[in-house]
Write a structure and sequence with these properties.
Blueprint (H helix, E strand, L loop, with lengths): L13 H12 L28 E10 L1 H4 L1 H11 L3 E7 L5 H6 L12 E4 L7 E6 L3 E3 L11 H13 L5 H6 L4 E8 L2 E9 L10 H23 L4 E7 L7 H6 L11 E2 L26 E5 L4 E8 L7 H7 L5 H5 L5 E7 H5 L1
Parallel strand pairs: 1-2, 7-8
Antiparallel strand pairs: 1-12, 2-4, 3-4, 5-6, 6-7, 8-10, 9-10, 11-12
């Protein structure tokens, strides 16, 4: 989301309503929770890799941050200890080779990096990176079109707003990518996306476009779950909730049994109750939560998580990782979400 964000950043009470709505539609399962700085303590680089299970970093990288400052990008990814990266709003000119060069080095303990580079979304592509093997998903391959019935209201709204080539925006497809991660004999469907930004009206074309995009993403997830065995689902990205919370509710489900629905991981900045993921400081708009990470609570348990911001790092952590307090903000106006998950039956054992 660019700093020149249009529209009213309002409806601050929507998140509380979403927590209730998502919990009711998700079926049984553990509640989302956040953790403090103990989750990100940096005694050694091997801390996170020793943690069993799945550790996800979801991040709007603002087009080219892996190339623009690969050293800082690499250090932030390394500090998170993530073994799955969901990177949205990636510039299509950023190549797989450049992404691989910006990742922490692989070794025998970590495993090789696998990369799935999405091709839909025009200048806002989605890239999935994993230390565990990735399986391409046919439903998310190629340019993923908007439903024909949704196009006219979107094009009319864009033309009225002064866009000269509204059709180009939809011709580039929905910004989403999906893959199946092979996690310890389990099949984990991971989805990364970036929804339409901005908007000043709850019934404006921007909100209509967001809702259209997320309905299509939900339809594609359903199609994968109906076609092939999947043990769990994680979906993360930039929802751009500048008007209503409906896109978050739509993506929550329902989905075919046994998955039922998804719930959002409730994440906060370290040692605080701040939940913003987009930094509005220096703009006319307040900082707020625009990025979310959803998961299937029937199969996955949220073990810990936080919103990563180098401004929250201690001096020792900054020195250890070779970062500065402003490293996060120079890379992107969004902050990464970091969350650790365990398979539910592994927890019960």
């Amino acid at each position: 989301m660019k700093v020149a964000r249009r529209g009213l950043l309002r409806h601050t009470s929507v998140l509380l309503a979403l927590v209730i709505a998502l919990s009711s539609c998700a079926g049984t399962g553990p509640s989302a929770r956040s953790t403090s700085s103990g989750d990100r303590t940096v005694a050694t680089e091997t801390l996170a890799r020793k943690e069993a299970g799945i550790r996800v970093l979801s991040w709007n990288v603002s087009h080219d941050s892996p190339v623009r400052d690969s050293e800082a990008f690499r250090s932030i990814v390394a500090s998170s200890g993530a073994n799955i990266l969901l990177l949205d709003e990636m510039e299509p000119t950023v190549t797989e080779q450049q992404i691989r060069a910006a990742l922490p080095e692989s070794d025998a303990a970590d495993g090789h990096w696998y990369i799935s580079h999405g091709s839909s979304g025009g200048r806002q592509r989605d890239v999935i990176v994993s230390r565990m093997p990735l399986e391409p998903v046919a439903e998310f391959q190629g340019i993923l079109p908007y439903p024909e019935a949704s196009l006219q209201p979107i094009h009319d709204g864009m033309a009225e707003a002064g866009f000269q080539h509204p059709k180009q925006s939809t011709d580039e497809g929905i910004a989403v990518n999906g893959a199946i991660v092979q996690s310890g004999g389990r099949r984990l469907l991971v989805v990364s996306f970036d929804l339409e930004c901005c908007g000043s009206l709850p019934d404006g074309w921007e909100e209509h476009k967001r809702n259209t995009e997320v309905r299509e993403i939900r339809r594609l997830i359903r199609a994968v779950l109906e076609r092939t065995p999947v043990d769990g689902v994680i979906a993360g990205g930039d929802f751009n909730l500048v008007m209503t919370g409906l896109p978050l509710v739509i993506l929550s489900g329902p989905y075919p049994a046994p998955h039922g629905g998804l719930i959002a991981a409730e994440l906060m900045h370290v040692d605080s109750d701040r939940t913003w993921t987009w930094d509005g400081r220096g703009t006319p708009f307040p900082s707020r939560a625009l990025d979310f990470l959803l998961y299937s609570p029937g199969s996955l348990s949220l073990d810990s998580g936080y919103i990563l911001d180098t401004e929250d790092f201690s001096p020792a952590e900054l020195q250890h990782w070779g970062l500065a307090p402003e490293s996060s903000s120079t890379l992107s106006d969004h902050r990464p979400l970091v969350a650790s998950f365990m398979w539910v039956d592994s927890v019960s054992k």
